Amino acid sequence: MTPPADRPERPDRRATTAPIDQGIVSGERRRAHAELLERAARAAGGLRALGVGEDDAVAVLMRNDIAFVEAVLGIAQVGAYSVPINWHFKADEVGYILRDAGAKLLVVHADLLPGVAAALPPGIELRVVPTPAELAQAYRIAPQACAVPAGAIAWDDWLAQQPPDPRAVDSPRSSMLYTSGTTGHPKGVRRAPLSPQQAVAAREVARLGYGLDPAEPIRALMPGPIYHSAPHAYALNTVRSGGLLVLMPRFDPEALLQRIERHRISHLYAVPTMFVRLLQLPESVRAGYDVSTLRHVIHGAAPCPREVKLRMIDWWGPVIHEFYGATESGIVTVADSRMALERPGTVGRALPGATVRILDAQGRELPPNEPGEVFVRQGAFSAFTYHGLPERRAEIDRDGLITCGDVGYLDEDGYLFLCDRVRDMVILGGTNIYPAEIEGVLVQMPGVKDCAVFGIPHDVLGEQLCAHVEPQPGVELGEDAVRDWLRARIADYKVPNRIVFQSPLPREDSGKIFKRRLREPYWRDAGRNI
Question: What is the chain's mean pLDDT, rounded?
Fold first, then answer.
């Protein structure tokens, strides 16, 4: 659970100012839709004055903030690529992306600038955003670190000096997000400008995939980091649809319920870890908030254990949806609550314009219910390359279909089921084992907060199973108890040989467990990776 100092005070459920129905909210700050667009137009004018134009790159290194959205909208208006950067990255990682993207300007939170200043490319322009109070409180940032340093150009001051420039390019670029995969430096996913037909198709994907229908009132809550691919797209589509976007500085389960009630939230983006933590709240807390305004809750990024999803549907109603896709592919499939109940484990069927195929190692299409590597195509987003590395697309491409590295199968009606990541599959004495199945059982054990299962070296069998388990606070678990729980529910050969208790487990800011960090020490001296 979140440390006590990070938890919100018992919330005052009365809004301190009149709610807005369009625009953006962060903490107690509110910006109406018209003002947001005007500030984006000022940003566009300022960028043009700096010589930023079509196909250039402008980087954004920020936590969730109103200025993040203003900057991205302004960058798109001039036809440049915005490059959101994970603010957890160290200086060298940030410097690599800035150089690789050829960024002409970096928009950065004040408290993050000192940590990356030494790695900034020569000549890059800086615009510094003061770190707002809600972020300072959530991340325990000292007040002096939140101010724009002397000599730096403050974002707000700079915008105030720019006349609004309402001009927009005919074919705006999407953001260029960096994805690292399993090896090597991060790669920028760079899309060609959308044609008018593709733009219409992309809006339809947002409507069907995220549930963001401009014809309906949208009051969306974003607890995930908007430098990540799906949260980024969700946030921008909300704003562009004319809806209300409520940003959370970081995820906290009770604070999320507070905001749902306070802002009458209709739409929500989540990841399964958030569901787990919401369900861990005492029943009295969960029952104390009104969530009846929710109409569409979408989750993705990681498998959701069946029991967790069923409990969320029971609590919030049939508003839970799941998507499958990736930075490269966009959203490919969606499963609503009915599908989840009727076909447990499915991530849905292909959206209009999307293709899903299951291929074996030789590229042959497999019949229904036979697992293989999942290859997909979403027509609206298919024209992409890796910036500066066009040859790398060939590594994941088969005749225009790309793989996200997942193992899965299609049933006889075309519903997609995922087994695991290709790189996570464990081969134990010639038998394929998919850790996601084990994790889905183990996370339901009383006293288990979360877990990660993966393969580690074994001299005879090739690999053996290892589980890192994060207990609930104050709970002591034993290896034998964990094994007994699993043996009662899965085949003996799937029970991990090694069990390690670790609190907390390393996580990406999206909430996903950083499994690669857990695996690396075991394989470091093995002389092999699988």
Answer: 88
First-to-last C-alpha distance (Å) of the chain? 34
Tell me if 174 sits within 8 A of 192, measured CB to CB. no
User: What is the tens place of the pLDDT at every residue in 487-503?
Assistant: 888 878 889 999 999 99
Predicted TM-score (pTM) of this structure:
0.80
CA–CA dist 524, 519 (Å, integer): 9
Q: Which residue has the higher pLDDT, 9 or 73?
A: 73
| Neighbour-count burial of 118, counting CB atoms closer than 10 A to its CB (0-12 exposed, 13-18 middle, 19+ buried) | exposed
Give the pair of three-digit tokens for residue 149.
């340093």
Task: Evaluate the CA torsion angle 214, 220, 226, 230 in order and state its sign.
Answer: negative
442-473 burial, b if ≥16 CB within 10 A, otherwise e? Answer: bbebeebbbbbbbbbbeeebebbbbbbbbbee
Contact of 145 with 110, CB cutoff 8 Å: yes
Q: Name the helix (H) or strand (E) containing 77.
A: helix 66-77
What pLDDT score was predicted for residue 14? 44
Pseudo-torsion of CA 333, 358, 375, 304, nearest 10°?
40
Span(s) in the chain for CATH 3.40.50.12780: 19-173, 181-421
For a pLDDT cut of 90, what percent of the chain falls above it?
A: 61
Q: Where does CATH 3.30.300.30 sit in the chain?
A: 425-523
β-pairing verdict for 81-84 and 57-61: parallel
Q: What gap in Å lies between CA 274 and CA 21, rounded to an integer?
A: 26
What is the spatial distance between Cα 146 and Cα 171, in angstroms, rounded to a whole number? 36
CA 151 to the chain's CA centroid: 35
CATH of domain 19-173: 3.40.50.12780
CB atoms within 10 A of CB 229: 22
pLDDT in tens, 318-353: 999 999 988 888 899 999 999 999 998 899 999 988
Superfamily of domain 425-523: ANL, C-terminal domain (3.30.300.30)
In 3D space, the residue among 438, 503, 513 whose CA is nearest the CA of residue 472 turns out to be 503
SS (H, E, C) 103-129: EEEEEEECCCHHHHHHHCCCCCEEEEE
**Residue that has been written with the tokens 């137009």 in this structure:** 41
CATH domain 181-421 topology: Rossmann fold (3.40.50)
Residue 282: cis peptide before it, omega within 30 degrees of 0? no
pLDDT of residue 433: 80
